[in-house]
Amino acid sequence: MSENNTAGTSGPVDMELQLRWSDEDALGHVNNARVVTLMEEARIRWTQPRGSSGRFPFGTVVASLQLNYLRPVYYQPTMTIQLSVVRIGTKSFSLRHVGIQDGQPVFDGTSVMVPLAEDKVSSRALNDLERAWLEGAFVEVEAKARA
After folding, report:
1. Which of 24, 49, 99, 105 would give a disulfide with 53, using CB separation of 3.0 to 4.6 Å?
2. Cα(38)–Cα(22) distance, rounded to whole angstroms?
3. Number of Cβ atoms within 10 Å of the Cβ of 47
4. What is the pLDDT of residues 13-51, one digit of tens each?
């Protein structure tokens, strides 16, 4: 995995992920369900606290997931998933995941993430550290895209 544009900078974060032989279907495409798994892997690697960062100490859960397949995702050694924060709420945030192969977008998805409280069941408000960190990857969504 490689990360470009980590915390402290502004804009999307590029995550390079290894594709696995088992991701491939009989047509040489990456299976549609595996695309969701790749989105999850990129999201977890990016949001997972490193050391005692204070970010999401009890984890996060997916509250909603929306995914549009733009063209076939082909099996090759790696692919890039570009993550950007498109909404920061009180108790949730939305991440956009754009899969890129050969310089072209192949899927575009959004997940709504909710931070967990200490009981690992209840939601909680984002803390100031998390909010500042998320703002580093915030990208304004065009009005046309929101409609």
Report:
1. 49
2. 12
3. 19
4. 999 999 998 898 888 899 999 999 999 999 999 988 666
Confidence (pLDDT) at 135:
95
* Size of the chain, expressed as the number of residues it contains: 147
Pull the structure tokens for residue 126.
């984002």
Running DSSP on this structure, what letter comes out for residue 53?
-
Q: Which residue shows structure tokens 């989105």?
A: 39
Q: How far apart are CA 54 and CA 44, in angstroms?
A: 15
Q: How confident is the model at residue 53 (pLDDT cuts 50, 70, 90)?
A: confident
Q: Is 19 in a helix, a strand, or coil?
A: coil
Which residues are bridge partners to 66 per DSSP? 110
CA 100, distance to chain mean position in Å, is 13
